[in-house]
Amino acid sequence: MRKLYLFCVAVLALAAAQPASAQFMWIDVNGDGFCDSQDVLDNTVTSIDLWLATNQDANFFPVTCPTGEDLTINSYTFILRSTGNVTFGAWTDAMAFGTNLGTGLAGNDRWVGRGSGNILPPGTYKLGSHAITVTGSPSISIISSTSASSQALTSFGSACLGTLGTNTMKLGLDWFDTCGTAGGTPVTDTTWGKIKALYRGD
Length: 202
What we know:
Elements: H1 2-17, E1 24-28, E2 47-53, E3 73-82, E4 85-93, E5 99-106, E6 109-120, E7 124-135, E8 140-143, E9 155-157, E10 168-170, E11 177-179, H2 191-199
Parallel strand pairs: 1-11
Antiparallel strand pairs: 1-2, 2-7, 3-6, 3-8, 3-9, 4-7, 5-6, 9-10
């Protein structure tokens, strides 16, 4: 009972400390579908998974489109930035989105875009997997823009109009929650990750 009480207190405290913002994109390294302190890169890692929750924030609390439409998805674009020795390989789409919306690589930045005529309902989706080669203990983050290309951004296409009314929900404008790999010094960015770290091993 005491452990359950502490768990509830932790949830409430963490939720109060982190204001909700719509949508959440994250990187998963170990295949559990979450982003937490266990998602660390080393030379045994050969791929990472990228996930998107169109209708939940980083604490997995539900969110809605401010203009009333459904938070559907029919395209995605993302930019990854590494802090160390990461070689990006091929991207494997998991959404059956067959239209290439652009790809590129410049320095430590990698961007990918895919789209489809099929509109999927609001929810949590594994967008796909990116092959990588790692040397040392670098980290990878999700960023909103890159100086290497003015056309690259992190976003998803949706029935929700978005701030600019373009049916494109953009990181840094319409939503802000991301979680990258933990690197050599693990960090935990989300409520769920903090709770998992707190009770792991019990």
